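Dock s-citryldethia Coenzyme A; give full complex structure.
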Amino acid sequence: MADSGTEGNGTLSIKDNRTGKEYEIDILDGDVIRAMDLRQIKVNDDDFGMMAYDPGFTNTASTRSTVTYIDGGKGILRYRGIPIEQLAERSSFLEVAYLILKGELPTQAESDEFVHDITMHTYVHENIIDLFDGFRYDAHAMGMLISSVSALSTFYPEAKDVRDADNRGIQIRRLVAKMPTLAAFAYRHHRGLPVIYPENELSYTANFLNMLFRIGGRDYTPDPVLVRALDVLFILHADHEQNCSATAMRVIGSSEADPYSALAGAMAALYGPLHGGANEAVLHMLSRIGSLDNVPAFIEGVKNREERLMGFGHRVYKAYDPRASIIKKTSEEVFEITGRNPLLNIALELERIALEDDFFVSRNLYPNVDFYSGIIYQAMGFPVELFSVLFAIPRTVGWLAQWEELLEDSEQRIARPRQIYVGSDVRDFVPMEERG
Ligand code: SDX
């Protein structure tokens, strides 16, 4: 990555009224200043210097990136410059994976090679299958997936050589290929069913559905409409710039940990209900509301801070999440096959009220990617415990693209934020007999 541009973007004049000193700070591309340029602002020469305080990184850029562009005010999302609407309409998940990982749409030959490589890496070592036997029968699929991905790092010790581009490429292809397999094995353990091995003649998404739902020797042919719907959902979840889990991937990756261990950390971040665990939380919320009659009382609960409207709100989007619009449209195609999920009526009523109620409008709270996705997943037969796993599979591509961009960025260093210490001043140790 080239260094951030400083020429010709102007400067910021800062006057420290404590000392009367004035400072000129370079403005970089895109109305950004370097935080380190604040450190020259001091009262005494031996001071540490000025820092910026930003819990939750609400106004801090951690990197320059070429992967994903979001305009939260306009509801714009583009992967490598291509609008998400066009990709959802015209592309496939593996083609979008190639675009996100390599930066360009593949030629036919490149696509054929990439699909072949992914298809040829879907199996996992048999010892990994034994690992699942160590979990309780009702273990959450995401907990099993995080553990199994981390365990994969022990099967590929060469993955530690993160500075070798070819080696990174092999590990990236392995992870993209094996995530559906591990997810399916976790699901089958949860259901007390024997695993179904990958079938190489099936597409990425059809193979995943087959490993999940085929029972015994009976043929299982997933409905092509559902296969396409899941492929579109995977496209929509593939990357989302510097979200919580991508930041976790980058922070872990900045210590040069192997990609399997970094990915396990990213998945752990995604698992939280404020992030990728929200789709599961939305389903629990809709089920708990139970009927349209209960919606007004629930909305009052949200306004009184007794409830949170899961699937609503976003740190970046202050307009409708473009992914939610596409998911809502896709849900109609799925319900044609599966029958309409009755929870959709409750979701639509919640949205109708929220889009006109000042409590939500004044806080820019709109449906995000998680609001409708769970309703589709449930209609397609996925158990709620699998929802965050269905987020993690496609987001593996985005995490790996962010990870590789970090390693290739000459400006990046090991992540080590500062703090503002507000604890005790120096004090002496107190022997036990004098405590009390
Ligand atoms: C994802 O970052 C990404 O890109 C993430 C993601 C991706 O693709 O990687 O898009 C995926 O994580 C989507 C978000 C899924 N999470 C949820 O749906 C959980 C519910 N939403 C939130 O908890 C919340 O909106 C966040 C976590 C998404 C954003 O939190 P912020 O930016 O820290 O906002 P905030 O909590 O400071 O809220 C601002 C105000 C507050 O009100 P006040 O205290 O100022 O009066 O809005 C309120 C909040 O109380 N608020 C909500 C709300 N979300 C925010 N009130 C009720 N219901 C909500 N859902």
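Observed: The pocket of s-citryldethia Coenzyme A is lined by residues 56, 240, 243, 274-276, 278, 302, 308-316, 363, 365, 368-370 (CB under 6 Å).
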